[in-house]
Write a structure and sequence with these properties.
Among the domains are: about 140 residues, no CATH class; about 250 residues, Glycogen Phosphorylase B (Rossmann fold, 3-Layer(aba) Sandwich), CATH 3.40.50. The protein has 33 helices and 26 strands. The strands form 7 sheets. Strands 9-12-13-6-3-14-15-19-20 form a 9-stranded mixed β-sheet. A 6-stranded parallel β-sheet has the order 23-22-21-24-25-26, with helices on both faces. A hairpin with a 2-residue loop joins strand 1 and strand 2. Its EC number is 2.4.1.1. Its cofactor is pyridoxal 5'-phosphate. This is Alpha-1,4 glucan phosphorylase.
Length: about 850
């Protein structure tokens, strides 16, 4: 192995040279016969597509070998149900995991093209909204790397999360047709198609054995067709898959309507049916939108359960051993309707009695909770489910009745608590609490950070914990180092590998060895040079995307994540305004130059989040063009935040903003990504920040603000933000600037909702935390001026990031929830290995 241009390069053996020749022939074949191009008409997109097909062939070979091994060994299989998979770009990740990156780089170079430029042509598969979908992607990578037979199930949305553009400072949403040019690495499975029913009615009859039997007669049927995205493990022969369903009409075309001239009606049923997989998160502010979202949830679980059972029946006659051979993890409540669907299959189609069906179901499902906010827990109107899924509503009623009878018999809860755990929420309009259904029907329930897991058993699931204390556990989230270090930060990867070897790729705890080199001045200097180059690359990206020139020597201070009030991007921009005011009041003030970068999307219907984006952009417009400020302060909003953009921002970051109100963020994973890439963190004691503090020590992380119990106590005592504003004259002036349209001179009054929310309610306690945040930011600025000490802290943060590998998380799921062994008999790759 050698290091060339900051990349790990593998010296080719004779066997690998032969493999290179083979790959070149395969690549040339796809260029000519799959893409249909010759050397005179080639372009970059043609190279990308041919490369995708070449890698696809390689993946399919290994996928078939993996499936054959599973068939012979008959292991327990894990199925990860998620309505979101934020995969980002796939091709480079596959090249790294397969060990093909260096050899493909040479091959593409021999054709006269640059691999890194070619990989930029891949569109992000944005089939998720944020951290929940990205977590699912990391988990698939880790399951394959650990040789666990683990498969994802979701929906192949035609349009992923919207493309965000900024017009006059405001977010506008544009459709994200991510697969417009085709997906060369995808494997279409037209032979794997299942029927999914909706609406209709139920019928009953008495069997020959005198048993009451139910039968659901759907009023509408849609077909679910499978598309597979192969998921290769790192340095192993295992390739699993993510199976995504696309909706197809059961009736392609109504010729009778067409022949009578009603051309629109001829294709109407087809269009309505296929809307199910059209778009991620349809706007659910209307009844039609709510119906479509519920359709999506049932469509996914119905097709997936049919597929799982069909695979199981290939080797088993009876379903008796189903819980020994499969486990299903529900990623949040979105797929929890699957609990009632499996009950329907077992009772109505397999003729099981209730007790046996319920016993099997509760052994199979486990549920991951992702929120401590009661208002964020998913509920559906009973009337909606009765209309769309009449049989399932009957089953849910029965589950609830039997559950509540058992609870009352146990004497563990009083009537108020029994109302809390009921799956049915009573009121003027009855609703189904999907989280309660998930808890009742799951074998295990886990939170995603130690603090979060503790909070859910003390707050939203407090009464459930009295009934099922052994059901609850913690599984702190993690990220895959293959994507978030090796792929996103190759220069830092090369430096680390040169110093401690490459084994950290599959054992992130090996990064601890870096601590032995913190005292090495030459190593620290090399580390600082890597960070500086990454910052310069980020500066080029910012200029290209926004036209704004930043100083790469300034502190790069970044907050990139989904926009939500509890994540408190507003607190960050208020502090920027404060810094701007200080410079204006004293132009000769000495401050640490700082570039504050924001990125993230607001849900299309989330008015306040979109207004905060508008405020940030308006502030940036003033600050960035003020000559008094010059290069001492810049504010950047990078539009259309996505996985591939995160991979470029994170390596160049000095300071990571993780400033949610304590007790609101379940875990966070961007905090882990920044930590792994050598950024220091400023944050509250929220989510996984608590465990990051435990790992690195208080002197190596910047923690501020109210703790969770203090937040609760402050709210219970009758919190009034005006009390805090009166104590802070500067904050009063900042709010006056907003109120008096300093940042909205052409749109008078536009930011009054922000002003009023801070002045009168301040749900997320920005006013209470502002002073502590400001003081900690001053300490950050002071510490950053000491470059040697800052670098030492950065190295130590990376060295202590090992706990936050998704490999560790998946090992814990495997041991504690899924009860599957980690297979150590799978041979590693014998060629194409990184390093």
């Amino acid at each position: 192995m050698i290091v060339e241009n900051n990349r790990l390069i593998t010296l080719l053996s004779e066997e690998q040279k032969a493999d290179l020749i083979s790959l070149e022939k395969q690549f040339a074949h796809h260029l000519e016969y799959t893409i249909g191009k010759n050397k005179y008409t080639l372009g970059n997109t043609d190279i990308y597509k041919a490369l995708g097909h070449t890698v696809r062939d390689f993946l399919i070979d290994r996928l078939n070998v993996t499936n054959e091994r599973y068939l012979n060994e008959d292991p327990k299989k894990i199925y990860y149900f998620s309505l979101e998979f934020l995969m980002g770009r796939t091709l480079m990740n596959a090249l790294i995991n397969l060990g093909l990156y260096d050899i493909i780089k040479q091959m593409i170079g021999s054709f006269g093209f640059d691999l890194e430029s070619i990989l930029e042509f891949e569109m992000d598969a944005g089939l998720g909204n944020g951290g929940l979908g990205r977590l699912a992607a990391c988990f698939l990578d880790s399951m394959a790397t650990l040789n666990i037979p683990g498969f994802g199930y979701g929906i192949r949305y035609d349009y992923g999360i919207f493309n965000q553009i900024i017009v006059n400072g405001s977010q506008l949403e544009m459709p994200d047709h991510w697969d417009a040019d085709g997906v060369p690495y995808e494997v279409v499975r037209p032979d794997i198609t299942f029927s999914v029913g909706f609406y209709g009615h139920t019928e009953t009859h008495i069997t020959g054995k005198g048993k009451l039997q139910y039968r659901w007669i759907p009023g509408e049927t849609v077909l679910a067709s499978a598309h597979d995205c192969p998921v290769p493990g790192f340095n192993t022969s295992t390739v699993n898959y993510l199976r995504l369903w696309t909706a197809k009409s059961s009736e392609e075309f109504n010729l009778d309507y067409f022949n009578h001239g009603d051309y629109m009606k001829a294709v109407q049923d087809k269009s309505i049916s296929e809307n199910i997989s059209k778009v991620l998160y349809p706007n659910d502010t209307t009844e039609q939108g709510k119906m479509l979202r519920l359709k999506q949830q049932y469509f996914m679980v119905c097709a997936s359960l049919q597929d799982i059972i069909a695979q199981y029946k290939q080797a088993n006659v009876s379903l008796d051993r189903l819980s020994d051979k499969i486990a299903i993890q529900l990623n949040d409540t979105h797929p929890s309707i699957g609990i009632s669907e499996l009950m329907r299959i077992l009772m109505d189609q397999e003729d099981w009695d209730w007790d046996d069906a319920w016993d099997l179901t509760t052994k199979i499902f486990s549920y991951t909770n992702h929120t401590v906010l009661p208002e964020a827990l998913e509920t559906w109107k009973v009337s909606l489910i009765e209309t769309l899924l009449p049989r399932h509503m009957q089953i849910i009623y029965e589950i609830n009745q039997r559950f509540l009878e058992d609870v009352r018999k146990s004497g563990k809860l009083n009537e108020t608590e029994i109302e809390e755990v009921s799956i049915i929420e009573e009121g003027n309009e009855k609703r189904i609490r999907m989280a309660n259904l998930a808890v009742v029907g799951a074998n295990k329930v886990n939170g995603v950070a130690a603090l979060h897991s503790d909070l859910i058993i003390k707050t939203i699931f407090k009464s459930f914990y009295k009934i099922f204390p052994d059901k609850f556990n913690n599984k702190t989230n993690g990220i895959t180092p293959r994507r978030w270090l090796i792929q996103s930060n190759p220069s830092l990867t090369a430096l680390i590998a040169k110093k401690i070897g490459p084994s950290f790729a599959t054992d992130l705890e090996k990064l601890r060895d870096l601590e032995n080199h913190i005292g090495d001045a030459e190593f620290r200097n090399d580390w600082a040079k890597v960070k500086q180059v990454n910052k310069e690359n980020l500066a080029k990206l910012i200029k290209g995307d926004t036209g704004i020139v930043i100083d790469p020597d300034s502190m790069i201070d970044v907050q990139v994540k989904r926009f939500h009030e509890y994540k408190r991007q507003l607190l960050n921009i208020l502090r920027v305004i404060a810094l701007y005011r200080r410079i204006k009041e004293n132009p000769n003030i000495t401050i640490t130059p700082r570039t504050v970068i924001f990125g993230g999307k607001a849900a299309p219907g989330y008015y306040m989040a979109k207004l905060i984006i508008k405020l940030i952009n308006n502030v940036a417009s003033i600050v960035n063009h003020d000559k008094d400020v010059a290069d001492r302060l810049k504010v950047i909003f990078l539009p259309n935040y996505r996985v591939s953009l995160a991979e470029k921002i994170i390596p160049g970051t000095n300071l990571s903003e993780q400033i949610s109100t304590a007790g609101t963020e379940a875990s966070g994973t961007s905090n882990m990504k920044f930590m792994l890439n050598g950024a220091l963190t400023i944050g509250t004691l929220d989510g996984a920040n608590v465990e990051m503090l435990e790992e690195v020590g208080r002197e190596n992380i910047y923690i501020f603000g109210l703790k969770t119990e203090e937040v609760f106590a402050t709210k219970q005592s009758g919190y009034d933000p005006r009390d805090w504003i009166e104590k802070n004259e500067e904050m009063g002036r900042i709010l006056r600037m907003i109120r008096e349209n300093f940042f909205s001179q052409n749109e008078l009054g536009i930011f009054m909702p922000i002003h009023d929310s801070l002045f009168y309610t301040d749900t997320y306690l920005l006013m209470a935390d502002f002073k502590a945040y400001d003081e900690m930011q001053k300490k950050v600025a002071e510490d950053f001026r000491n470059a040697e000490e800052w670098t030492k802290k950065a190295i130590l943060n990376v060295a202590r990031a090992g706990k936050f590998s998704s490999d560790r998380t998946i090992r814990e799921y495997a041991k504690d929830i899924w009860k599957v062994p980690l297979l150590s008999t799978v041979p590693p790759q014998t060629s194409y290995q990184l390093g």
